[in-house]
């Protein structure tokens, strides 16, 4: 056997041995970061079908719901809820067909730290056609949509302020 | 003031079984030894060795059967342990076969080693089949103590080999190193015992100089194990075994109680014991002398001017350099004396694969141990945790004791490099050890069964009052 072949084999063997070690470390690495975290596209309204969004039901029990009936959201449908005034200013919640509860209760989607809010103040949910509806849950100080106190569930126009105590939220695209 | 912003969602964890990863790694782990085999043949004779096909098929069969059984019986177990063990075993086979090519090193051992590896894999499968749940072992805490003691004491009644009495010779069958099996069994005992007693050992203590001093009566077990390991050292004159058992106990005690004081006690006791025994036992003494003065010449059977084996091993590491001389092109035949194929196989690795190859091998051991400790972290029951720590600790100690001995860090002891070195008991016992670790890891990584739907999980209605 020529000297060159043997040298190549010698170094090649070491390389293969180290390659095994490196692949093994890669396996460990993928084992450590095995849980897949998907970024929810807040710019795009349509959630991929594989997601199991958290549903916050009236009782606040969070549970993984089966994927919601995927309705093509119409153009111009709101994709996020933004808090524009109050202590939580700047908070956004992506709208993915889940019910959003507001109130001082700890299990609310948005926990309001507001003396004028009731523990279960209001909820925002999509109806069958994908319109977002706001409903007052019998709060003490009321929920205002565009200066009118809510008495019945009402659809929310894009950008209309919803006032709860000192907090104002609105839906945006 | 917490706000749930639904910006990220953690995808449903569908609990990957990682068996396909394991299959790929296994194929890799079989290919590397076959490559090494071809390399040795080309270097020695200039042609591919005749047995290459059979050897490759044999190793792939072993790995394949083990993998299929894993798919069936330990679906969620760690994907790395089996490939690493296969690779180390395969490399060991190649190295032994390579040393068999040197006529001066005695009769061929590789066929035997392949046979023992087969037995080892069979035991591996047996453990996976029989042991459906590692917690069953907890029932045998005290039985395993007795069995381990018997296994440890038995070699005293058999004649020593090369000065160390760690063998049982059964006429007609061969010899057995019971210490290899005892390390698994005693880990079971320690795990069961410490699980029950750890609170007493951890909490009932006084603080003194920033250290927790255990009560006198709690010192009992550690002193008993210490005395036992000293007895092994004195009567069986084997530093490795005694270090392994005492070290294993201290590791498990530390993990169970989280008290550093046990480590301090353990190190003090073992140092005192080793120094004390080294002063009396001539066999241990000579090993220590070889370690302290490796370049001294000595006389064996009237032939003088012989250099110590420690020095020979060091020379082989030195001549290997960074990249080694290449498989089959070293001068391992000059590592004379007793055990180039078992105790000193690491010297051959160091010479023919160089520092680079030696590091890779040691890293492989490290990865195997890491997976064991990871298993301990992931295990949910305290017994499984302690057992996994104990088994990987024993494995780690063994690797340390052998590698340290061969490279001249500590006095040489009569243990074998797990999987790599020639020796039936070692291969069989270590396959069983890996099987138990895989069983624990399967239990730990198995996804929890879906909870039964309870009426509470129904949507709560908001009732307006």
From TrEMBL, chain B:
Which molecular function terms from Gene Ontology are attached? lipid-linked peptidoglycan transporter activity
| InterPro entries (alphabetical) | FtsW/RodA
Which residue intervals make up region (Disordered)?
A: 445-465
> Which chain regions cross the lipid bilayer?
23-42, 48-68, 80-99, 114-131, 140-158, 178-196, 217-235, 241-257, 264-284, 344-365, 386-413, 419-438
Regarding the membrane, this protein is recorded as: Multi-pass membrane protein
Q: Which UniProt keywords apply?
A: Cell cycle, Cell division, Cell shape, Membrane, Transmembrane, Transmembrane helix
Q: Which biological process terms from the Gene Ontology are attached to this UniProt entry?
A: cell division; regulation of cell shape
Entry keyword annotation includes DNA damage: no
Q: Does the keyword Ribonucleoprotein apply?
A: no
Q: A single GO CC term, please? A: plasma membrane
Subcellular locations according to the entry: Membrane
Q: Which Pfam families does this chain map to?
A: FTSW_RODA_SPOVE
Protein name per its UniProtKB record = Cell division protein FtsW (Lipid II flippase)
């Amino acid at each position: 056997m020529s000297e060159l072949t043997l040298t190549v084999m010698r170094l090649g063997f070491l390389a293969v041995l180290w390659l095994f070690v490196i692949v093994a470390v890669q396996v460990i690495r993928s084992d450590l970061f095995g849980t897949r975290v998907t970024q929810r596209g807040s710019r795009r309204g349509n959630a991929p079908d594989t997601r199991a969004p958290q549903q916050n039901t009236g009782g606040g029990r969070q549970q993984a719901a089966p994927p919601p009936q995927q309705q093509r959201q119409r153009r111009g449908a709101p994709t996020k809820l933004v808090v524009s005034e109050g202590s939580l200013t700047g908070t956004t919640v992506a709208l993915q067909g889940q019910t959003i509860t507001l109130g001082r209760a700890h299990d609310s989607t948005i926990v309001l730290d507001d003396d004028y809010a009731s523990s279960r103040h209001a909820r925002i949910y999509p109806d069958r056609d994908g319109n977002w509806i706001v409903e007052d849950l019998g709060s003490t100080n009321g929920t205002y949509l565009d200066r009118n106190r809510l008495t019945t569930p009402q659809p929310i126009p894009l950008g209309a302020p919803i006032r709860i105590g000192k907090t104002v939220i609105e839906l945006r695209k | 003031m917490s706000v749930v912003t639904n910006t990220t969602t953690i995808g449903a964890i569908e609990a990957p079984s990682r068996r396909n990863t394991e299959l790929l790694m296994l194929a890799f782990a079989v290919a590397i030894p076959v490559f090494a085999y071809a390399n040795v043949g080309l270097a020695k004779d200039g042609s591919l060795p005749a047995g290459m096909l059979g050897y490759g098929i044999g190793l792939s069969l072993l790995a394949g059967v083990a993998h299929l059984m894993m798919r069936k019986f330990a679906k969620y177990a760690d994907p790395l342990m089996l490939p690493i063990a296969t690779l180390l075993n395969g490399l060991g086979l190649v190295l032994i076969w390579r040393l068999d090519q040197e006529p001066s090193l005695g009769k061929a051992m590789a066929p035997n080693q392949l046979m023992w590896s087969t037995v080892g894999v069979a035991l591996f499968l047996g453990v996976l089949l029989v042991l459906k749940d590692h917690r069953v072992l907890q029932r045998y805490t005290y039985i395993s103590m007795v069995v381990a003691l018997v296994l440890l004491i038995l070699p005293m009644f058999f004649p020593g080999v090369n000065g160390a009495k760690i063998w049982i010779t059964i006429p007609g069958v061969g010899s057995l190193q019971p210490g290899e099996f005892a390390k698994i069994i005693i880990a079971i005992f320690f795990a069961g015992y410490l699980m029950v007693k750890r609170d007493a050992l951890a909490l009932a203590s006084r603080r003194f100089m920033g250290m927790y001093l255990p009560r006198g009566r709690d010192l009992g077990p550690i002193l008993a194990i210490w005395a036992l390991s000293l007895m092994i050292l004195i009567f069986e004159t084997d530093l490795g075994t005694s270090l392994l058992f005492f070290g294993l106990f201290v590791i498990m005690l530390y993990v169970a109680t989280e008290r550093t004081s046990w480590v301090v006690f353990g190190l003090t006791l073992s140092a005192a014991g080793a120094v004390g025994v080294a002063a009396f036992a001539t066999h241990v003494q000579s090993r220590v002398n070889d370690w302290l003065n490796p370049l001294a010449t000595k006389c064996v059977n009237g032939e003088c001017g012989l250099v110590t084996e420690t020095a020979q091993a060091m020379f082989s590491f030195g001549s290997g350099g960074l990249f080694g001389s290449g498989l089959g092109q070293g001068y391992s035949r000059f590592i004379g004396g007793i055990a180039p194929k078992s105790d000193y196989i690491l010297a051959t690795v160091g010479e023919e694969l160089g520092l680079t190859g030696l590091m890779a091998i040691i890293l492989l051991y490290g990865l195997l141990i890491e997976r064991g400790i990871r298993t301990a972290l992931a295990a949910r029951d305290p017994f499984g945790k302690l057992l996994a720590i104990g088994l990987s600790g024993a494995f780690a100690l063994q690797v340390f004791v052998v590698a340290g001995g061969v490279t001249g860090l500590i006095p040489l002891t009569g243990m074998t490099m797990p999987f790599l070195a020639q020796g039936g008991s070692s291969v069989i016992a270590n396959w069983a050890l890996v099987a138990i670790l895989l069983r624990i890891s399967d239990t730990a990584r198995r996804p929890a069964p879906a909870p039964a739907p309870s009426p509470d999980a129904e949507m709560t209605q908001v009732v307006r009052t």
